[in-house]
Amino acid sequence: MRKIFSVPLNLIFIGFITGLTGAMLPGPLLAFAVTTSVKNKRNIGVEISLGHLAVELPVVYLIYTGVLHLNRFGLKVVTVIGAFGLIFLGISAIRAKEERRKIRYSGSATVGGAFFTFFNPGFPLWWGIVGMPLIARASMEGVIGVILLISGHATSDIMWYALISEGTVRAKFKEETYKKLLKILGTMLIVYAAYLLYKMGCITGL
Question: How many Å apart are CA 114 and CA 123, to the nearest integer?
Answer without folding.
Answer: 11
